[in-house]
Amino acid sequence: xxxxxxxxxxxxxxxxxxxVGMAGSGKTTFLHRLVCHTLSSNIRGYVLNLDPAVxxxxxxxxxxxRDTVRYKEVMKEYNLGPNGGILTSLNLFATKFDEVISVxxxxxxxxxxxxxxxxxQIEIFTWSASGAIITEAFASTFPTVIAYVVDTPRSANPVxxxxxxxxxxxxxxxxxxxxxLVFNKVDxxxxxxxxxxxxxxxxxxxxxETDSSYTSTLTRSLSLVLDEFYKxxxxxxxxxxxxxxxxxxxxxxxxxxxxxxxxx
Length: 264
Ligand code: GDP
Ligand code: MG
Known about the structure:
The chain is α/β, with parallel strands linked by helices. 50% of the residues lie in helices and 14% in strands. It has twelve helices and seven strands. The chain has a seven-stranded parallel sheet with strand order 3-2-4-1-5-6-7, sandwiched between helices. Magnesium ion (MG) is lined by residues 27-28, 51, 54, 120.
């Protein structure tokens, strides 16, 4: 019996980790920390930078969008501002993404994880056609997981927390990929408050009602939606600066990759 090559082409490894999050949440710093962790623990990682506008990267990227598209020149050529320049650069890169997939496929046996950094402004990746094309190209070839980085100290306000979680929820809904919430910067503020709010609907309700400027019926409905959302994800507390939480992060990624293999 001859098995068609396409039937066995889906690989168990590497696991693709797409790092997204609000500007300044610490994606690039977190990726640097992940790279350091893989190097010191014999995990075989491969790094992909999709941010065309970053000036200096703290880590060495195996594949770098900046080697293919020059963001400043794209801005000039198409007469664009910074965001348009980044978006157009990503679009140009997405047209060649099959080549990136081939490169990773050729190395698949030697890799455990592919770590993907995305542009600073979250919506450039999560709400663009090219972001969807890139995500889809990964997810149809390898187990793919979204790591949603949260700026923990900035999310201590319940309203900010809720809008950040609603954004994460929209990404889960849009990509339908396993999502890991990465509470970053726990060296500055611990993420226990977030865990409490996620586990205990009443506790979150009480926190948000201290701010009387928000209509309680709407926030109540929204937090019910979020309660459902939390059931579908894993969360970890990390510090990209101090390095806490790396083992917990990789365990959550492994569990998410299993989930991917069962559902996709
Ligand atoms: P990005 O826009 O999401 O890629 O964010 P960056 O990685 O550029 O980080 C934004 C800022 O947050 C920088 O000033 C980082 O030094 C800082 N930062 C990132 N991670 C941490 C962390 O774990 N702890 C602290 N204290 N600062 C962090
Ligand atoms: Mg960055």
